[in-house]
Design a protein that fits this description.
By secondary structure, the chain is an alpha/beta fold. Helix content is 22%, strand content 26%. α1 runs parallel beside α3 and α5 runs parallel beside α6. The longest helix has 17 residues. It binds 3-methyl-2-ureido-butyric acid. The site of 3-methyl-2-ureido-butyric acid (CDV) has 11 residues, from loops.
Length: 309
């Protein structure tokens, strides 16, 4: 018997600077209702799904605070949890977390009863902590978020082994391998990826969508896992556009569903959680073929990249 799970990527279009939490949560609920009508059991929302992608601005800390959630759930987000329980649909949600005085870029996994069963804090925080002079939009994630302290876990949930990663994490093979080594069968990864304006004058902006796809397809194939990749996208203000291309990718590295807009859009697919077995027992049979004694350097705190921003 195949282990089937119907999953959805609930892509969120632009959220404007002054949109209220209530307005955003209504949109998330509409997508959840559509997902339920399509038989989806687990609906995945993107990174920082509850507000505009504010790291493009240099804000006073007090102004930035309004984009963070001090508890989860909280009164503004509770309707989403209530609807999940009512519909019997689980979900994944990315949000900006304020824990005491600490700020994280986080995601949670919520079961069909509306209970939080897993939490992850983004490990690879891109961008800078200080604005880059002359750049109209910034990417100040390193100003607003601490590096996550959870590490990469895998949860037994929804009949499979589920892991989470957030945006920039998807570009790092280490993310996928650490999840892969725990037998992950489905990786959920949300993103906010500017099509322009990440770094002024960058030569490969034209390849932004390709690099995202490449990362997901390689990560899935090399670890025999499914992935749901989901975007917070669109033109959040004139000339600041975040890429879409939410996608569901198979353990063979094939894209089986792909979004086509930069608006709120649901894509879904029924996935067989056993589909990665052939890879895990074959070409990427870790026990048989890995050579950990040759890989020690990747867990050393060294690297040849320029220093952190
Ligand atoms: N939110 C992100 O982590 N965005 C990065 C951009 C800045 C490159 C990404 O990896 O998509």
């Amino acid at each position: 018997m195949p282990r089937l799970l119907r999953v959805g990527a609930a892509q969120i279009g632009p959220i404007y600077r002054d949109d209220t939490r209530g307005e955003v949560v209504e949109r998330l609920i509409a997508l959840m209702e559509e997902a339920e009508r399509k038989g989806v059991e687990l609906v995945c929302y993107p990174e920082c799904a509850l507000s505009t992608f504010f790291p493009r601005y240099l804000l006073e800390r007090s102004e930035a605070e309004r984009y963070f959630e001090e508890s989860m759930p909280n009164p503004s987000v509770q309707p989403l949890f209530d609807q999940a329980r009512e519909l019997g649909v689980g979900f994944h949600l990315g949000y900006s977390e304020l824990d005491g005085g600490n700020h994280y870029n986080s995601s949670i996994l919520v079961d069909k009863e509306g209970r939080i069963i897993g939490k992850y804090r983004k490990s690879h925080i891109p961008g800078t902590s200080e604005p880059i002079p002359g750049q109209r939009f910034q990417h100040l994630e390193r100003r607003y978020f601490l590096e996550g302290d959870t590490g990469f876990s895998v949860w037994d949930a929804f009949g499979g082994k589920i892991g989470m990663a957030i945006c920039n994490d998807r570009r790092w093979p280490e993310t996928w391998r650490v999840l892969g080594m725990q037998g992950v069968e489905l990786v959920i990864v949300g993103w906010n990826t500017p099509l322009t304006h990440y770094r002024k004058g960058i030569s490969y902006s034209r390849l932004t969508e390709f690099h995202s796809k490449l990362s997901l397809q390689a990560g899935c194939y090399q670890n025999g896992t499914w992935a749901v990749g989901v975007a917070h996208c669109g033109e959040e203000e004139p000339d600041y556009v975040l890429m879409g291309q939410s996608m569901i990718v198979s353990p063979l590295g094939e894209v089986v569903a792909l979004s086509t807009t930069l608006r709120d859009e649901l894509i879904s697919s029924t996935i067989d959680l056993d589909a990665g077995k052939e890879i895990k027992e074959g070409v990427f049979n870790f026990e048989l073929y890995r050579r950990p004694e040759l890989y020690k350097i990747i867990s050393e705190p060294t690297g040849t990249n320029p220093s952190k921003g």
